[in-house]
Write a structure and sequence with these properties.
The complex is a heterodimer of chains A (230) and B (411). Chain A is α+β, with helices and mostly antiparallel strands and 230 residues long. Chain A folds into 2 domains: 78 residues, no CATH class; 132 residues, PCu(A)C copper chaperone (Immunoglobulin-like), CATH 2.60.40. In chain A, strands 1, 2, 3, 4, 5, 6, 7, 8, 9 and 10 form a 10-stranded mixed sheet that branches. In chain A, β4 and β5 form a beta hairpin. The radius of gyration of chain A is 17 Å and the shape is globular. Chain B has a domain of 123 residues. In chain B, strands 5, 6, 7, 8 and 9 form a 5-stranded antiparallel sheet that branches. The longest helix of chain B is centred in the first third of the chain and has 29 residues. Chain B is globular, with a radius of gyration of 22 Å. The chains are: A alpha+beta (230), B alpha+beta (411). At the A-B interface, β1 of A face α3 of B.
């Protein structure tokens, strides 16, 4: 289990670079990358602490995005193969996603979740994602830094779905990060997510949107040091 | 199974009865759903073991399921579960037909999962979904929802509200609503989780207007099929139409029906002043058995002509059964009410009553005439006061691949 207090601290993201996980050098770009969103008033301590772990999930993402994916149009997503139907031998034939869903948002960023299942006897690797709902999609994970803090970063090597097994994408864990949402994603509407595997074959997923309080991509949710117990 | 002295035999008997009861109850639910024309999901985790098997699982009650998909919604003909919540919601101003479609997509998926014991998408308390306990969720549309959907109310033929009655003391906080969820299960935690999840998933469409929680006896505390008792101590709901024989009284041809939810406050303090004889005369039934004062058993017909030794009718002119009863067999409806017992205020001892819930094909033809007669004269009115009232159109059930409300919403 992660250390909640530490998580809270690392979510105080605008003020102090030295609170960024040292394992993540890209965090140096954080302060300049809070553009476009007015800082929110700090919430109550209770809410802040309770929400910290989930809040951080995407807050952390955002910082990493800033380093790795900004400007948004030029990510490393290699899904240019498109969503062509795979032939009989494609990796995607063995991959399914159950219970996919995406968090409804008006604009900006969101994330898609679900359970990837591999029916083949070889590991499968999802290497990139695209979506019609946003300009960019990335594969993200939550990782523990040297100081024990959990933060988000792009998942190197993609999502590995073990042979005959599954890989869960969920708030607080691995997820498909969606950026550049300009048209509102409305609760109940499905969005299209395309996952690309190592061999270039793709899996198209229809992920219905749900109103969801967690998995916030908020900036500056806890913009003071008041929660720093370290 | 904890026993005190002398409980060996009794606990054995109770255990056996509970085990059998659990299995029978689950089977009964399936049969009723089948009889109602709805399919039974194949994977329903109904209580294991055939009747007569030595043991049923300890959690047979929790594992029992009711079907969801079908031409009629569940929660109407379903044998009443022990716990219920009625949740009315008001639509946000910008909700149109397209938005209603989106909401019904969400609710249909949520309900299908919840009623089979699976967690809905984005369920933050997924473990709570693992105990379906015969959960049913029945969705109803108020007038504003139909208007938002662009539905001509005449096409569903129902009244937006009951006519005003002289006995009414209706409060806004218990009345009206654009949508309603009737959430019933044999476990109150299951109900609470379903209510919160469904209300959360509707946040961008509607806000909660009122919630009325209710209860009956817990499973296993009375023989299956026992008519419930209300908090005045009366057997309540004896003269219900037969689910099969009288199906046309409950359902419309397309599988829709209508739902009336009235909150009936009981003045138990003044009811306390009445002796047993007075209480029985007020109703026209015996308190112990629910049988008519003219004799027989609970389900025997009341003899309204019978006279006592003074030449007075045994069932008084003002008695509830006389006023509610009619020779017009069409003026009947399915009662599926629940007791409520909320925290009192203002120094009162209790705040108790009945969430009076009825289903009927035609509100105006079946329910309104009876309510009018009771409004004119019913001694029970001395101790009961309607404080809330709402009427909803209950769309047909969702067939495979359909959403609730499909017949009026389309896709």
């Amino acid at each position: 289990m992660s250390n909640t207090r530490t998580i809270t601290r690392t979510s105080t993201r605008t003020d102090s670079l030295d609170h960024r996980p040292s394992a993540d050098p890209s965090s140096a770009t954080v302060p300049s990358e809070t553009s476009g969103r007015a800082p929110r008033a700090p919430r109550s301590l209770l809410v802040g602490v309770a929400a910290a772990s989930l809040t951080l999930v995407l807050a952390g993402c955002a910082s990493d995005d800033g380093a790795a994916a900004s400007p948004p149009a030029s990510t490393g997503s290699s899904s240019s193969a498109g969503s062509t139907e795979s032939d009989g031998s494609a990796e995607a034939d063995a991959l399914t996603m159950t219970d996919p869903w995406v968090k409804a948002v008006d604009e900006g960023m969101t994330a898609a979740f679900g359970t990837l299942e591999n029916s083949s006897d070889a590991d499968l690797v999802v290497v990139s994602a695209t979506t019609t709902a946003g300009s960019t999609a990335e594969l993200h994970e939550m990782a523990e830094g040297d100081d024990g803090a959990m933060t988000m970063q792009e998942k190197e090597g993609g999502f590995v779905v073990p042979a005959g097994g599954e890989h869960v994408l969920e708030p607080g864990g691995d997820h498909v990060m969606v950026m550049g949402v300009t048209d509102p994603i409305l609760a109940g509407d499905p969005i299209e997510v395309t996952l690309t595997l190592e061999d270039g074959s793709t899996l198209d997923v229809e992920a219905p949107a749900r109103t969801y309080s967690g998995a916030n991509e908020s900036y500056d949710e806890h913009g003071d040091d008041g929660h720093d117990h370290s | 199974m904890t026993g005190r002295r002398g409980l060996d035999r009794r606990s054995f008997l109770q255990g056996g009865a509970a085990a059998l009861g659990g299995a029978a109850l689950a089977l009964g639910g399936r049969e009723l759903v089948e009889a109602a024309g709805g399919p039974v999901p194949g994977g329903g985790a109904t209580a294991g073991g055939a009747p007569g098997a030595p043991t049923a699982p300890d959690d047979a009650v929790g594992r029992a399921t009711e079907g969801f998909r079908g031409t009629r919604q569940a929660g109407v003909a379903t044998p009443p579960q022990a716990s219920a919540a009625f949740v009315a919601l008001d639509l946000a101003g910008d909700v149109d037909r397209a938005a209603l479609v989106r909401l019904m997509r969400i609710w249909t998926d949520d309900i299908e999962r919840l009623t089979s014991g699976r967690a809905p998408l984005a369920d933050t308390e997924a473990e709570l979904a693992a105990v379906p306990a015969r959960l049913t969720v029945t969705v109803g549309f108020g007038p504003a929802a139909l208007a938002a959907a662009g539905v001509d109310e005449a096409s569903v033929s129902w009244p937006a509200a009951l006519p005003p009655f002289g006995i009414d003391r209706l409060e806004d906080r218990w009345s009206g609503g654009d949508l309603v969820l009737q959430v019933c299960a044999d476990d109150p935690l299951t109900v609470a989780h379903a209510v919160r999840l469904l209300a959360k998933d509707a946040r961008s469409f509607a806000e909660v207007r009122w919630v009325q929680r209710g209860f009956r006896r817990a499973v296993g505390t009375t023989p299956s099929g026992t008519t419930m008792r209300n908090l005045m101590g009366q057997v309540d709901g004896t003269a219900n139409p037969h689910l099969d024989v009288d199906a046309n009284l409950i359902w419309r041809e397309d599988g829709s029906t209508s739902m009336v939810v009235r909150r009936i406050a009981m003045n138990l303090d003044t009811w306390d002043e009445l002796d047993r004889d007075g209480r029985e005369k007020a109703v026209g039934r015996r308190l112990d058995t629910g049988a008519p004062l003219t004799g027989g058993t609970e389900h025997d017909e009341v003899d309204l002509e019978a006279e006592d030794e003074h030449g007075l009718t045994v069932v008084a002119p003002f008695a509830h059964v006389r006023r509610a009863r009619t020779d017009d067999r069409a003026q009947r409806f399915l009662r599926r009410g629940y007791n409520y017992d909320d925290a009192p205020s203002g120094g009162a001892v209790s705040d108790s009553g009945l969430v009076f819930v009825t289903f009927q094909a035609d509100v105006e033809a079946q329910l309104v005439p009876v309510q009018r007669r009771l409004d004119e004269l019913d001694l029970l009115n001395e101790w009961t006061t309607p404080v809330g009232s709402a009427v909803f159109w209950v769309p047909p059930g969702a067939g495979s691949g359909e959403i609730l409300g499909q017949s009026v919403l389309g896709g």
